Fold:
Amino acid sequence: MTTFRQRWSSSTFLRVASVLGAVALLSAVVVLTAAWFTEQSTGKGAAINVAGSLRMQSYLLATRVADQRLDAQSRLAAIAEEAAGFETRLRNPGLVAAVRPERSLRQQHERIEIDWSALRPLALAAVGDAEARDRFLRDVHPFVGGIDAFVRALELDLESRIHMLQVALGGALFLILVLVVTAFFVLDIQVFQPIKDLVRVTQAVRTGQVAVRAEATGDDELGQLGRHFNHMVEELGGLYGSLEAQIAAKTADLARKNRSLMLLYDTARELSSAQLEQGALMRVADKVREVLGVQAVVVCARQTDNAMGLPLAHAEARAGSICDAVLCAGCPDEAKVSWHEAREAGDGAAGQQVVSVPIVDGERVYGVLPLMLSPGQVLDSWQLELAQTVGRHLGAAMSAAEARDEHRRLALLEERSAIARELHDSLAQSLSYTKIQLARLSALLASAQTPPEQAREVVQELREGVSAAYRQLRELLTTFRLQLSGKGLSSALQEAVADFTARSGIAATLDNGLFGLELSANEQIHVLQIVREALSNIEHHADARHAAVRLKRSASAVGEVEVAIEDDGVGIATQASPRHHFGLSIMRDRAQMLGGEVSVMRAGTEATRPGTRVTLRFPSTPYRPREPAAEPIAAE
Structure:
Protein backbone atom coordinates (compact mmCIF):
# COMPACT_ATOMS: atom_id res chain seq x y z
CA MET A 1 0.00 0.00 0.00
CA THR A 2 2.86 2.37 0.82
CA THR A 3 4.45 1.74 -2.59
CA PHE A 4 1.17 2.50 -4.35
CA ARG A 5 0.78 5.76 -2.41
CA GLN A 6 4.28 6.79 -3.38
CA ARG A 7 3.63 6.04 -7.04
CA TRP A 8 0.27 7.84 -6.82
CA SER A 9 1.83 10.99 -5.39
CA SER A 10 4.81 11.01 -7.79
CA SER A 11 3.00 10.07 -11.01
CA THR A 12 0.52 12.37 -12.69
CA PHE A 13 0.13 9.74 -15.39
CA LEU A 14 -1.13 7.15 -12.88
CA ARG A 15 -3.72 9.56 -11.50
CA VAL A 16 -4.97 10.69 -14.91
CA ALA A 17 -4.90 7.15 -16.29
CA SER A 18 -6.96 5.82 -13.40
CA VAL A 19 -9.70 8.42 -13.83
CA LEU A 20 -9.78 8.21 -17.63
CA GLY A 21 -9.65 4.42 -17.49
CA ALA A 22 -12.82 4.34 -15.45
CA VAL A 23 -14.52 6.71 -17.92
CA ALA A 24 -13.26 4.67 -20.89
CA LEU A 25 -14.50 1.41 -19.33
CA LEU A 26 -17.98 2.78 -18.81
CA SER A 27 -17.96 4.32 -22.31
CA ALA A 28 -17.00 0.96 -23.78
CA VAL A 29 -19.96 -0.62 -21.99
CA VAL A 30 -22.23 2.07 -23.47
CA VAL A 31 -20.80 1.60 -26.97
CA LEU A 32 -21.17 -2.16 -26.83
CA THR A 33 -24.75 -1.81 -25.61
CA ALA A 34 -25.56 0.65 -28.38
CA ALA A 35 -23.87 -1.62 -30.92
CA TRP A 36 -25.96 -4.57 -29.76
CA PHE A 37 -29.18 -2.58 -30.10
CA THR A 38 -28.05 -1.21 -33.45
CA GLU A 39 -27.29 -4.69 -34.74
CA GLN A 40 -30.77 -5.79 -33.71
CA SER A 41 -32.24 -2.88 -35.66
CA THR A 42 -29.98 -3.16 -38.72
CA GLY A 43 -31.85 -2.73 -41.93
CA LYS A 44 -35.15 -1.70 -40.29
CA GLY A 45 -35.10 1.79 -41.77
CA ALA A 46 -34.27 0.54 -45.25
CA ALA A 47 -36.92 -2.16 -44.90
CA ILE A 48 -39.53 0.48 -44.02
CA ASN A 49 -38.57 2.51 -47.12
CA VAL A 50 -38.83 -0.58 -49.34
CA ALA A 51 -42.14 -1.59 -47.75
CA GLY A 52 -43.46 1.95 -48.25
CA SER A 53 -42.45 1.86 -51.90
CA LEU A 54 -44.69 -1.22 -52.32
CA ARG A 55 -47.71 1.06 -51.85
CA MET A 56 -46.53 3.44 -54.53
CA GLN A 57 -45.74 0.53 -56.86
CA SER A 58 -49.22 -0.95 -56.27
CA TYR A 59 -50.96 2.33 -57.18
CA LEU A 60 -48.65 2.77 -60.17
CA LEU A 61 -49.57 -0.73 -61.34
CA ALA A 62 -53.25 0.13 -60.88
CA THR A 63 -52.73 3.25 -62.96
CA ARG A 64 -51.14 1.18 -65.75
CA VAL A 65 -54.06 -1.28 -65.64
CA ALA A 66 -56.70 1.49 -65.76
CA ASP A 67 -54.94 3.43 -68.56
CA GLN A 68 -56.76 2.73 -71.84
CA ARG A 69 -54.82 5.20 -74.04
CA LEU A 70 -52.09 2.77 -75.13
CA ASP A 71 -52.44 -0.19 -77.42
CA ALA A 72 -52.70 -3.69 -75.93
CA GLN A 73 -49.08 -4.65 -76.50
CA SER A 74 -47.73 -1.44 -74.95
CA ARG A 75 -50.08 -1.75 -71.97
CA LEU A 76 -49.05 -5.36 -71.41
CA ALA A 77 -45.36 -4.39 -71.51
CA ALA A 78 -45.95 -1.50 -69.07
CA ILE A 79 -47.96 -3.70 -66.68
CA ALA A 80 -45.33 -6.45 -66.82
CA GLU A 81 -42.60 -3.93 -66.09
CA GLU A 82 -44.42 -2.50 -63.06
CA ALA A 83 -45.25 -6.03 -61.82
CA ALA A 84 -41.59 -6.99 -62.08
CA GLY A 85 -40.67 -3.85 -60.12
CA PHE A 86 -43.14 -4.77 -57.39
CA GLU A 87 -41.76 -8.31 -57.11
CA THR A 88 -38.21 -6.97 -56.93
CA ARG A 89 -39.13 -4.72 -54.01
CA LEU A 90 -41.21 -7.44 -52.32
CA ARG A 91 -38.27 -9.87 -52.41
CA ASN A 92 -35.68 -7.24 -51.52
CA PRO A 93 -32.93 -8.97 -49.48
CA GLY A 94 -32.90 -6.16 -46.92
CA LEU A 95 -36.65 -6.40 -46.41
CA VAL A 96 -36.56 -10.20 -46.11
CA ALA A 97 -33.65 -10.04 -43.63
CA ALA A 98 -35.42 -7.37 -41.53
CA VAL A 99 -38.63 -9.40 -41.09
CA ARG A 100 -36.98 -12.80 -40.58
CA PRO A 101 -36.29 -12.47 -36.77
CA GLU A 102 -39.87 -11.41 -35.92
CA ARG A 103 -42.56 -14.04 -36.46
CA SER A 104 -45.44 -11.57 -36.80
CA LEU A 105 -43.60 -9.49 -39.38
CA ARG A 106 -42.61 -12.62 -41.26
CA GLN A 107 -46.22 -13.80 -41.37
CA GLN A 108 -47.44 -10.44 -42.65
CA HIS A 109 -44.78 -10.47 -45.37
CA GLU A 110 -45.79 -14.01 -46.38
CA ARG A 111 -49.46 -12.90 -46.49
CA ILE A 112 -48.56 -10.06 -48.86
CA GLU A 113 -46.70 -12.53 -51.10
CA ILE A 114 -49.76 -14.83 -51.18
CA ASP A 115 -52.10 -11.92 -52.00
CA TRP A 116 -49.70 -10.72 -54.70
CA SER A 117 -49.56 -14.19 -56.30
CA ALA A 118 -53.34 -13.96 -56.70
CA LEU A 119 -53.35 -10.31 -57.82
CA ARG A 120 -50.53 -10.48 -60.40
CA PRO A 121 -52.39 -12.74 -62.92
CA LEU A 122 -55.37 -10.36 -62.77
CA ALA A 123 -53.09 -7.43 -63.68
CA LEU A 124 -51.63 -9.27 -66.67
CA ALA A 125 -55.06 -10.48 -67.80
CA ALA A 126 -56.56 -6.98 -67.49
CA VAL A 127 -55.16 -5.97 -70.90
CA GLY A 128 -57.79 -7.89 -72.84
CA ASP A 129 -60.33 -8.77 -70.13
CA ALA A 130 -62.49 -5.98 -68.73
CA GLU A 131 -63.81 -8.21 -65.93
CA ALA A 132 -60.24 -9.01 -64.81
CA ARG A 133 -59.44 -5.30 -64.89
CA ASP A 134 -62.44 -4.41 -62.73
CA ARG A 135 -61.65 -7.21 -60.32
CA PHE A 136 -58.02 -6.09 -60.07
CA LEU A 137 -58.97 -2.47 -59.41
CA ARG A 138 -61.44 -3.65 -56.75
CA ASP A 139 -58.94 -5.93 -55.00
CA VAL A 140 -55.94 -3.58 -55.11
CA HIS A 141 -57.27 -1.31 -52.33
CA PRO A 142 -57.50 -4.10 -49.69
CA PHE A 143 -54.11 -5.27 -50.89
CA VAL A 144 -52.64 -1.80 -50.29
CA GLY A 145 -54.31 -1.78 -46.88
CA GLY A 146 -52.41 -4.95 -46.00
CA ILE A 147 -49.18 -3.27 -47.11
CA ASP A 148 -50.00 -0.26 -44.89
CA ALA A 149 -50.48 -2.56 -41.91
CA PHE A 150 -47.17 -4.24 -42.69
CA VAL A 151 -45.40 -0.85 -42.85
CA ARG A 152 -46.95 0.22 -39.53
CA ALA A 153 -45.81 -3.04 -37.92
CA LEU A 154 -42.27 -2.41 -39.13
CA GLU A 155 -42.35 1.14 -37.77
CA LEU A 156 -43.66 -0.01 -34.37
CA ASP A 157 -40.96 -2.66 -34.13
CA LEU A 158 -38.26 -0.10 -34.92
CA GLU A 159 -39.71 2.42 -32.45
CA SER A 160 -39.73 -0.24 -29.73
CA ARG A 161 -36.08 -1.03 -30.28
CA ILE A 162 -35.17 2.67 -30.34
CA HIS A 163 -37.02 3.22 -27.05
CA MET A 164 -35.09 0.38 -25.40
CA LEU A 165 -31.85 1.87 -26.70
CA GLN A 166 -32.81 5.31 -25.35
CA VAL A 167 -33.48 3.92 -21.88
CA ALA A 168 -30.17 2.05 -21.81
CA LEU A 169 -28.23 5.04 -23.10
CA GLY A 170 -29.94 7.36 -20.63
CA GLY A 171 -28.89 5.24 -17.68
CA ALA A 172 -25.36 4.90 -18.96
CA LEU A 173 -25.18 8.63 -19.62
CA PHE A 174 -26.17 9.36 -16.03
CA LEU A 175 -23.40 7.10 -14.73
CA ILE A 176 -20.88 8.69 -17.10
CA LEU A 177 -21.88 12.17 -15.94
CA VAL A 178 -21.38 11.18 -12.31
CA LEU A 179 -17.99 9.70 -13.09
CA VAL A 180 -16.99 12.70 -15.21
CA VAL A 181 -17.88 15.14 -12.41
CA THR A 182 -15.77 13.06 -10.02
CA ALA A 183 -12.95 12.99 -12.58
CA PHE A 184 -13.07 16.78 -12.99
CA PHE A 185 -12.81 17.23 -9.26
CA VAL A 186 -9.78 14.94 -8.98
CA LEU A 187 -8.10 16.29 -12.12
CA ASP A 188 -8.61 19.89 -11.07
CA ILE A 189 -6.70 19.36 -7.87
CA GLN A 190 -4.02 17.02 -9.18
CA VAL A 191 -3.51 18.26 -12.76
CA PHE A 192 -5.37 21.40 -13.82
CA GLN A 193 -4.23 23.72 -11.04
CA PRO A 194 -0.51 22.94 -11.66
CA ILE A 195 -1.11 23.38 -15.39
CA LYS A 196 -2.88 26.72 -14.82
CA ASP A 197 0.15 27.86 -12.87
CA LEU A 198 2.43 26.88 -15.78
CA VAL A 199 0.13 28.68 -18.24
CA ARG A 200 0.25 31.80 -16.11
CA VAL A 201 4.03 31.71 -16.12
CA THR A 202 4.26 31.07 -19.88
CA GLN A 203 1.91 33.99 -20.62
CA ALA A 204 4.06 36.24 -18.49
CA VAL A 205 7.20 35.07 -20.28
CA ARG A 206 5.53 35.70 -23.64
CA THR A 207 5.06 39.34 -22.68
CA GLY A 208 8.75 39.62 -21.76
CA GLN A 209 8.53 39.05 -17.97
CA VAL A 210 11.40 36.60 -17.65
CA ALA A 211 11.58 37.07 -13.83
CA VAL A 212 8.46 34.99 -13.07
CA ARG A 213 8.76 31.40 -11.74
CA ALA A 214 6.44 28.41 -11.54
CA GLU A 215 5.10 27.41 -8.09
CA ALA A 216 4.44 23.72 -8.89
CA THR A 217 7.81 22.10 -8.23
CA GLY A 218 6.81 18.78 -6.63
CA ASP A 219 8.01 15.23 -7.33
CA ASP A 220 5.49 14.33 -10.06
CA GLU A 221 5.82 15.00 -13.77
CA LEU A 222 4.19 18.43 -13.56
CA GLY A 223 6.48 19.38 -10.67
CA GLN A 224 9.53 18.31 -12.66
CA LEU A 225 8.17 20.28 -15.62
CA GLY A 226 7.87 23.35 -13.38
CA ARG A 227 11.48 23.06 -12.18
CA HIS A 228 12.81 22.60 -15.74
CA PHE A 229 10.67 25.49 -16.94
CA ASN A 230 12.10 27.78 -14.29
CA HIS A 231 15.60 26.81 -15.42
CA MET A 232 14.68 27.46 -19.06
CA VAL A 233 13.30 30.91 -18.24
CA GLU A 234 16.55 31.81 -16.54
CA GLU A 235 18.49 30.92 -19.69
CA LEU A 236 15.93 32.58 -21.92
CA GLY A 237 16.44 35.89 -20.18
CA GLY A 238 19.99 36.02 -21.51
CA LEU A 239 18.94 35.28 -25.11
CA TYR A 240 15.81 37.39 -25.28
CA GLY A 241 17.64 40.59 -26.08
CA SER A 242 18.95 39.42 -29.50
CA LEU A 243 16.04 37.14 -30.38
CA GLU A 244 13.68 39.88 -31.57
CA ALA A 245 16.15 41.18 -34.12
CA GLN A 246 16.74 37.66 -35.50
CA ILE A 247 13.01 36.98 -35.77
CA ALA A 248 12.40 40.25 -37.58
CA ALA A 249 15.14 39.45 -40.12
CA LYS A 250 13.79 35.95 -40.72
CA THR A 251 10.24 37.24 -41.04
CA ALA A 252 11.28 39.81 -43.64
CA ASP A 253 13.18 37.14 -45.58
CA LEU A 254 10.20 34.79 -45.54
CA ALA A 255 7.86 37.56 -46.64
CA ARG A 256 10.18 38.40 -49.54
CA LYS A 257 10.40 34.76 -50.59
CA ASN A 258 6.65 34.45 -50.34
CA ARG A 259 6.16 37.47 -52.63
CA SER A 260 8.64 35.97 -55.09
CA LEU A 261 6.86 32.63 -55.11
CA MET A 262 3.50 34.33 -55.55
CA LEU A 263 4.90 36.33 -58.47
CA LEU A 264 6.19 33.16 -60.17
CA TYR A 265 2.91 31.36 -59.48
CA ASP A 266 0.82 34.23 -60.86
CA THR A 267 3.10 34.46 -63.90
CA ALA A 268 2.81 30.73 -64.63
CA ARG A 269 -0.96 30.85 -64.16
CA GLU A 270 -1.42 33.87 -66.43
CA LEU A 271 0.78 32.36 -69.15
CA SER A 272 -0.71 28.86 -68.99
CA SER A 273 -3.74 29.65 -71.16
CA ALA A 274 -3.98 28.35 -74.71
CA GLN A 275 -3.65 31.87 -76.13
CA LEU A 276 -0.98 34.37 -75.08
CA GLU A 277 -3.23 37.39 -74.51
CA GLN A 278 -2.15 40.98 -73.97
CA GLY A 279 -4.26 41.20 -70.82
CA ALA A 280 -2.26 38.36 -69.23
CA LEU A 281 1.01 40.06 -70.17
CA MET A 282 -0.24 43.35 -68.71
CA ARG A 283 -1.07 41.64 -65.42
CA VAL A 284 2.35 39.94 -65.34
CA ALA A 285 4.11 43.24 -65.99
CA ASP A 286 2.11 45.01 -63.28
CA LYS A 287 2.88 42.22 -60.79
CA VAL A 288 6.62 42.37 -61.61
CA ARG A 289 6.63 46.15 -61.10
CA GLU A 290 4.81 45.78 -57.77
CA VAL A 291 7.06 43.02 -56.37
CA LEU A 292 10.38 44.46 -57.54
CA GLY A 293 9.42 48.02 -56.63
CA VAL A 294 10.62 49.48 -59.94
CA GLN A 295 9.11 52.48 -61.68
CA ALA A 296 8.08 50.80 -64.95
CA VAL A 297 8.17 47.43 -66.73
CA VAL A 298 7.82 46.66 -70.44
CA VAL A 299 7.32 43.29 -72.13
CA CYS A 300 8.92 43.83 -75.53
CA ALA A 301 9.21 41.31 -78.37
CA ARG A 302 12.25 41.60 -80.67
CA GLN A 303 13.70 39.97 -83.74
CA THR A 304 17.37 39.45 -84.43
CA ASP A 305 17.26 41.41 -87.70
CA ASN A 306 15.46 44.43 -86.21
CA ALA A 307 16.93 46.64 -83.48
CA MET A 308 13.52 48.11 -82.67
CA GLY A 309 11.19 46.14 -80.43
CA LEU A 310 7.44 45.59 -80.37
CA PRO A 311 5.96 46.48 -76.93
CA LEU A 312 3.41 43.81 -75.99
CA ALA A 313 2.53 45.10 -72.51
CA HIS A 314 3.72 47.63 -69.97
CA ALA A 315 3.10 48.74 -66.41
CA GLU A 316 4.03 52.15 -64.97
CA ALA A 317 3.89 53.60 -61.48
CA ARG A 318 2.81 56.95 -62.94
CA ALA A 319 1.42 57.96 -66.32
CA GLY A 320 4.04 58.54 -68.99
CA SER A 321 5.53 57.20 -72.17
CA ILE A 322 7.78 54.45 -70.88
CA CYS A 323 8.51 53.18 -74.38
CA ASP A 324 9.91 56.60 -75.35
CA ALA A 325 12.18 56.61 -72.32
CA VAL A 326 13.47 53.06 -72.83
CA LEU A 327 15.89 53.21 -75.73
CA CYS A 328 15.48 50.06 -77.85
CA ALA A 329 18.92 50.41 -79.35
CA GLY A 330 20.38 50.08 -75.87
CA CYS A 331 18.93 46.59 -75.39
CA PRO A 332 21.27 44.05 -77.04
CA ASP A 333 19.92 40.74 -78.37
CA GLU A 334 22.08 38.72 -76.02
CA ALA A 335 20.77 36.20 -73.51
CA LYS A 336 22.16 38.15 -70.55
CA VAL A 337 21.20 41.11 -68.40
CA SER A 338 22.36 44.55 -69.55
CA TRP A 339 22.31 48.04 -67.97
CA HIS A 340 21.87 51.39 -69.70
CA GLU A 341 20.41 54.83 -69.08
CA ALA A 342 16.95 56.00 -70.16
CA ARG A 343 16.76 58.84 -72.67
CA GLU A 344 14.75 62.05 -72.27
CA ALA A 345 11.01 61.39 -72.57
CA GLY A 346 9.50 64.62 -71.34
CA ASP A 347 8.89 63.26 -67.83
CA GLY A 348 12.31 63.60 -66.25
CA ALA A 349 13.30 60.01 -66.96
CA ALA A 350 16.60 60.92 -68.58
CA GLY A 351 19.54 59.47 -66.68
CA GLN A 352 17.54 56.83 -64.82
CA GLN A 353 18.88 53.31 -64.90
CA VAL A 354 17.17 50.69 -67.10
CA VAL A 355 17.86 47.00 -66.54
CA SER A 356 17.16 44.91 -69.65
CA VAL A 357 16.36 41.30 -68.75
CA PRO A 358 16.28 38.94 -71.74
CA ILE A 359 13.14 36.95 -72.56
CA VAL A 360 14.66 33.60 -73.52
CA ASP A 361 13.78 29.96 -73.93
CA GLY A 362 16.89 27.82 -74.11
CA GLU A 363 19.32 29.54 -76.45
CA ARG A 364 16.72 31.57 -78.34
CA VAL A 365 15.98 35.18 -77.45
CA TYR A 366 12.36 36.22 -77.93
CA GLY A 367 12.56 39.72 -76.57
CA VAL A 368 13.57 41.82 -73.62
CA LEU A 369 12.03 42.87 -70.29
CA PRO A 370 13.21 46.45 -69.56
CA LEU A 371 12.91 47.51 -65.92
CA MET A 372 13.14 51.27 -65.27
CA LEU A 373 14.47 51.81 -61.76
CA SER A 374 13.40 54.60 -59.48
CA PRO A 375 15.98 57.35 -58.89
CA GLY A 376 18.72 55.97 -56.66
CA GLN A 377 17.29 52.43 -56.69
CA VAL A 378 19.63 49.43 -56.84
CA LEU A 379 18.37 45.90 -57.50
CA ASP A 380 19.44 43.22 -55.05
CA SER A 381 20.64 39.85 -56.29
CA TRP A 382 17.35 38.13 -55.44
CA GLN A 383 15.42 40.77 -57.40
CA LEU A 384 17.63 40.30 -60.44
CA GLU A 385 17.32 36.49 -60.26
CA LEU A 386 13.55 36.81 -59.91
CA ALA A 387 13.35 39.08 -62.98
CA GLN A 388 15.44 36.59 -64.99
CA THR A 389 13.13 33.75 -63.94
CA VAL A 390 10.12 35.77 -65.10
CA GLY A 391 11.94 36.39 -68.39
CA ARG A 392 12.43 32.64 -68.84
CA HIS A 393 8.72 32.05 -68.09
CA LEU A 394 7.77 34.63 -70.71
CA GLY A 395 10.17 33.04 -73.21
CA ALA A 396 8.72 29.59 -72.58
CA ALA A 397 5.18 30.96 -73.07
CA MET A 398 6.16 32.68 -76.35
CA SER A 399 7.88 29.50 -77.52
CA ALA A 400 4.81 27.43 -76.69
CA ALA A 401 2.54 29.94 -78.48
CA GLU A 402 4.81 29.84 -81.53
CA ALA A 403 4.78 26.02 -81.51
CA ARG A 404 0.97 25.98 -81.25
CA ASP A 405 0.66 28.37 -84.18
CA GLU A 406 3.03 26.26 -86.27
CA HIS A 407 1.10 23.10 -85.39
CA ARG A 408 -2.17 24.77 -86.41
CA ARG A 409 -0.66 25.87 -89.73
CA LEU A 410 0.63 22.37 -90.49
CA ALA A 411 -2.70 20.83 -89.52
CA LEU A 412 -4.53 23.33 -91.74
CA LEU A 413 -2.25 22.57 -94.70
CA GLU A 414 -2.64 18.83 -94.19
CA GLU A 415 -6.42 19.08 -93.98
CA ARG A 416 -6.57 21.29 -97.08
CA SER A 417 -4.44 18.76 -98.95
CA ALA A 418 -6.76 15.96 -97.81
CA ILE A 419 -9.81 17.93 -98.98
CA ALA A 420 -8.23 18.62 -102.36
CA ARG A 421 -7.19 15.00 -102.78
CA GLU A 422 -10.63 13.68 -101.90
CA LEU A 423 -12.27 16.18 -104.25
CA HIS A 424 -9.89 15.05 -106.99
CA ASP A 425 -10.49 11.36 -106.33
CA SER A 426 -14.28 11.59 -106.17
CA LEU A 427 -16.10 14.69 -107.33
CA ALA A 428 -13.55 15.73 -110.00
CA GLN A 429 -13.62 12.26 -111.55
CA SER A 430 -17.43 12.26 -111.64
CA LEU A 431 -17.50 15.71 -113.21
CA SER A 432 -14.87 14.61 -115.76
CA TYR A 433 -17.06 11.63 -116.63
CA THR A 434 -20.07 13.97 -116.93
CA LYS A 435 -18.07 16.23 -119.26
CA ILE A 436 -17.30 13.28 -121.55
CA GLN A 437 -20.96 12.27 -121.60
CA LEU A 438 -21.95 15.84 -122.49
CA ALA A 439 -19.50 15.74 -125.41
CA ARG A 440 -21.04 12.44 -126.57
CA LEU A 441 -24.53 13.86 -126.28
CA SER A 442 -23.53 16.96 -128.23
CA ALA A 443 -22.08 14.79 -131.03
CA LEU A 444 -25.20 12.63 -131.15
CA LEU A 445 -27.51 15.63 -131.27
CA ALA A 446 -25.42 17.15 -134.10
CA SER A 447 -25.95 14.04 -136.18
CA ALA A 448 -29.32 13.80 -137.89
CA GLN A 449 -29.07 10.02 -138.11
CA THR A 450 -28.71 9.42 -134.37
CA PRO A 451 -31.38 7.04 -133.07
CA PRO A 452 -33.43 8.53 -130.20
CA GLU A 453 -32.77 5.46 -128.08
CA GLN A 454 -29.01 6.07 -128.18
CA ALA A 455 -29.46 9.72 -127.18
CA ARG A 456 -31.78 8.72 -124.32
CA GLU A 457 -29.18 6.19 -123.15
CA VAL A 458 -26.50 8.89 -123.03
CA VAL A 459 -28.92 11.22 -121.19
CA GLN A 460 -29.61 8.44 -118.65
CA GLU A 461 -25.86 7.89 -118.10
CA LEU A 462 -25.41 11.65 -117.78
CA ARG A 463 -28.21 11.76 -115.18
CA GLU A 464 -26.58 8.93 -113.23
CA GLY A 465 -23.22 10.71 -113.33
CA VAL A 466 -24.73 13.98 -112.05
CA SER A 467 -26.59 12.10 -109.30
CA ALA A 468 -23.39 10.33 -108.29
CA ALA A 469 -21.50 13.63 -108.23
CA TYR A 470 -24.21 15.21 -106.06
CA ARG A 471 -24.18 12.26 -103.68
CA GLN A 472 -20.39 12.39 -103.43
CA LEU A 473 -20.55 16.13 -102.76
CA ARG A 474 -23.00 15.56 -99.91
CA GLU A 475 -20.81 12.79 -98.46
CA LEU A 476 -17.72 14.99 -98.68
CA LEU A 477 -19.52 17.87 -96.97
CA THR A 478 -20.57 15.53 -94.15
CA THR A 479 -17.01 14.25 -93.87
CA PHE A 480 -15.41 17.69 -93.81
CA ARG A 481 -17.78 18.89 -91.10
CA LEU A 482 -16.76 16.02 -88.81
CA GLN A 483 -15.36 17.02 -85.44
CA LEU A 484 -14.29 15.06 -82.39
CA SER A 485 -16.07 16.14 -79.23
CA GLY A 486 -14.26 16.64 -75.95
CA LYS A 487 -15.22 13.07 -74.96
CA GLY A 488 -12.71 11.61 -77.42
CA LEU A 489 -12.63 8.87 -80.05
CA SER A 490 -14.61 6.28 -78.07
CA SER A 491 -17.63 8.56 -77.74
CA ALA A 492 -17.42 9.61 -81.41
CA LEU A 493 -17.33 5.94 -82.52
CA GLN A 494 -20.34 5.13 -80.35
CA GLU A 495 -22.25 8.04 -81.90
CA ALA A 496 -21.24 6.95 -85.43
CA VAL A 497 -22.37 3.35 -84.82
CA ALA A 498 -25.64 4.54 -83.23
CA ASP A 499 -26.32 6.90 -86.17
CA PHE A 500 -25.57 4.08 -88.60
CA THR A 501 -28.04 1.74 -86.88
CA ALA A 502 -30.74 4.42 -86.66
CA ARG A 503 -30.26 5.42 -90.29
CA SER A 504 -29.96 1.99 -91.92
CA GLY A 505 -31.79 -0.33 -89.51
CA ILE A 506 -28.75 -2.65 -89.49
CA ALA A 507 -27.76 -3.93 -86.03
CA ALA A 508 -24.18 -2.84 -85.27
CA THR A 509 -21.83 -3.48 -82.36
CA LEU A 510 -18.68 -1.67 -81.21
CA ASP A 511 -15.77 -3.41 -79.44
CA ASN A 512 -13.16 -0.80 -78.53
CA GLY A 513 -10.09 -2.46 -76.99
CA LEU A 514 -7.97 0.70 -76.92
CA PHE A 515 -7.22 2.61 -73.74
CA GLY A 516 -7.67 5.98 -75.48
CA LEU A 517 -3.97 6.94 -75.24
CA GLU A 518 -2.65 4.99 -78.22
CA LEU A 519 -3.75 7.48 -80.92
CA SER A 520 -2.96 11.12 -81.53
CA ALA A 521 -5.72 13.58 -82.42
CA ASN A 522 -4.88 13.38 -86.14
CA GLU A 523 -4.92 9.56 -86.08
CA GLN A 524 -8.26 9.59 -84.28
CA ILE A 525 -9.79 11.75 -87.05
CA HIS A 526 -8.54 9.40 -89.81
CA VAL A 527 -9.71 6.28 -87.95
CA LEU A 528 -13.15 7.77 -87.41
CA GLN A 529 -13.38 8.78 -91.09
CA ILE A 530 -12.43 5.27 -92.26
CA VAL A 531 -14.99 3.67 -89.93
CA ARG A 532 -17.72 6.05 -91.16
CA GLU A 533 -16.83 5.36 -94.80
CA ALA A 534 -16.88 1.59 -94.24
CA LEU A 535 -20.27 1.79 -92.47
CA SER A 536 -21.58 3.94 -95.33
CA ASN A 537 -20.49 1.24 -97.82
CA ILE A 538 -22.29 -1.41 -95.73
CA GLU A 539 -25.45 0.71 -95.71
CA HIS A 540 -25.51 1.28 -99.46
CA HIS A 541 -24.02 -1.91 -100.94
CA ALA A 542 -23.82 -4.82 -98.48
CA ASP A 543 -27.51 -5.70 -97.92
CA ALA A 544 -26.37 -6.81 -94.46
CA ARG A 545 -28.27 -7.65 -91.29
CA HIS A 546 -25.43 -7.21 -88.82
CA ALA A 547 -22.23 -5.15 -88.68
CA ALA A 548 -19.37 -5.04 -86.18
CA VAL A 549 -16.58 -2.51 -85.51
CA ARG A 550 -13.51 -3.65 -83.51
CA LEU A 551 -10.43 -1.69 -82.42
CA LYS A 552 -7.47 -3.32 -80.71
CA ARG A 553 -3.72 -3.29 -80.38
CA SER A 554 -2.20 -5.78 -82.78
CA ALA A 555 -0.74 -8.91 -81.21
CA SER A 556 1.64 -9.48 -84.13
CA ALA A 557 3.47 -6.13 -84.08
CA VAL A 558 4.37 -3.91 -81.14
CA GLY A 559 2.80 -0.46 -81.33
CA GLU A 560 0.48 -1.39 -84.21
CA VAL A 561 -3.26 -0.69 -84.06
CA GLU A 562 -5.83 -2.78 -85.92
CA VAL A 563 -9.32 -1.54 -86.86
CA ALA A 564 -11.77 -4.02 -88.42
CA ILE A 565 -15.25 -3.34 -89.86
CA GLU A 566 -17.18 -6.52 -90.74
CA ASP A 567 -20.67 -7.33 -92.06
CA ASP A 568 -22.68 -10.40 -93.05
CA GLY A 569 -23.87 -9.03 -96.39
CA VAL A 570 -23.49 -10.18 -99.98
CA GLY A 571 -19.73 -9.70 -99.96
CA ILE A 572 -17.44 -7.78 -102.27
CA ALA A 573 -16.41 -9.10 -105.66
CA THR A 574 -13.33 -6.94 -106.18
CA GLN A 575 -11.15 -4.61 -104.12
CA ALA A 576 -11.37 -1.93 -106.81
CA SER A 577 -13.92 0.87 -106.38
CA PRO A 578 -16.94 0.71 -108.71
CA ARG A 579 -17.56 3.50 -111.15
CA HIS A 580 -18.60 6.77 -109.46
CA HIS A 581 -17.65 5.28 -106.03
CA PHE A 582 -14.34 6.20 -104.46
CA GLY A 583 -14.81 5.03 -100.86
CA LEU A 584 -12.09 2.35 -100.98
CA SER A 585 -9.65 4.74 -102.64
CA ILE A 586 -10.27 7.39 -99.99
CA MET A 587 -9.82 4.83 -97.20
CA ARG A 588 -6.53 3.67 -98.71
CA ASP A 589 -5.32 7.28 -99.00
CA ARG A 590 -6.10 7.89 -95.35
CA ALA A 591 -4.33 4.66 -94.39
CA GLN A 592 -1.24 5.80 -96.29
CA MET A 593 -1.32 9.11 -94.41
CA LEU A 594 -1.23 7.05 -91.20
CA GLY A 595 1.68 4.97 -92.51
CA GLY A 596 -0.48 1.83 -92.72
CA GLU A 597 -2.66 -0.08 -95.14
CA VAL A 598 -6.28 -1.12 -95.71
CA SER A 599 -7.26 -4.61 -96.81
CA VAL A 600 -10.71 -5.68 -98.06
CA MET A 601 -11.73 -9.35 -98.19
CA ARG A 602 -14.64 -11.67 -97.72
CA ALA A 603 -15.45 -12.35 -94.10
CA GLY A 604 -16.93 -15.88 -94.43
CA THR A 605 -17.28 -18.88 -96.72
CA GLU A 606 -21.02 -18.86 -97.37
CA ALA A 607 -21.91 -18.74 -101.04
CA THR A 608 -24.90 -16.38 -100.80
CA ARG A 609 -23.87 -14.07 -97.90
CA PRO A 610 -20.11 -14.33 -97.34
CA GLY A 611 -19.88 -10.81 -95.86
CA THR A 612 -17.03 -8.32 -96.11
CA ARG A 613 -14.22 -7.41 -93.73
CA VAL A 614 -12.35 -4.08 -94.02
CA THR A 615 -9.13 -4.11 -91.94
CA LEU A 616 -6.94 -1.07 -91.20
CA ARG A 617 -3.47 -1.61 -89.70
CA PHE A 618 -1.05 1.21 -88.92
CA PRO A 619 1.75 1.96 -86.44
CA SER A 620 0.56 4.17 -83.59
CA THR A 621 2.88 6.79 -82.14
CA PRO A 622 0.71 9.43 -80.42
CA TYR A 623 3.32 12.19 -80.61
CA ARG A 624 4.95 11.31 -83.95
CA PRO A 625 5.65 14.50 -85.98
CA ARG A 626 3.69 14.65 -89.19
CA GLU A 627 5.31 15.38 -92.55
CA PRO A 628 3.50 18.07 -94.56
CA ALA A 629 1.04 16.52 -96.98
CA ALA A 630 1.94 16.57 -100.69
CA GLU A 631 0.26 19.10 -102.91
CA PRO A 632 -2.88 17.64 -104.56
CA ILE A 633 -2.85 16.85 -108.28
CA ALA A 634 -5.23 19.01 -110.23
CA ALA A 635 -8.21 17.23 -111.80
CA GLU A 636 -8.04 16.80 -115.50
Notes: The longest helix spans residues 130-206. The longest strand covers residues 306-316. The mean pLDDT is 76. The beta strands are 296-303, 306-316, 338-341, 353-361, 364-372, 507-512, 546-553, 560-567, 597-602, 612-619.
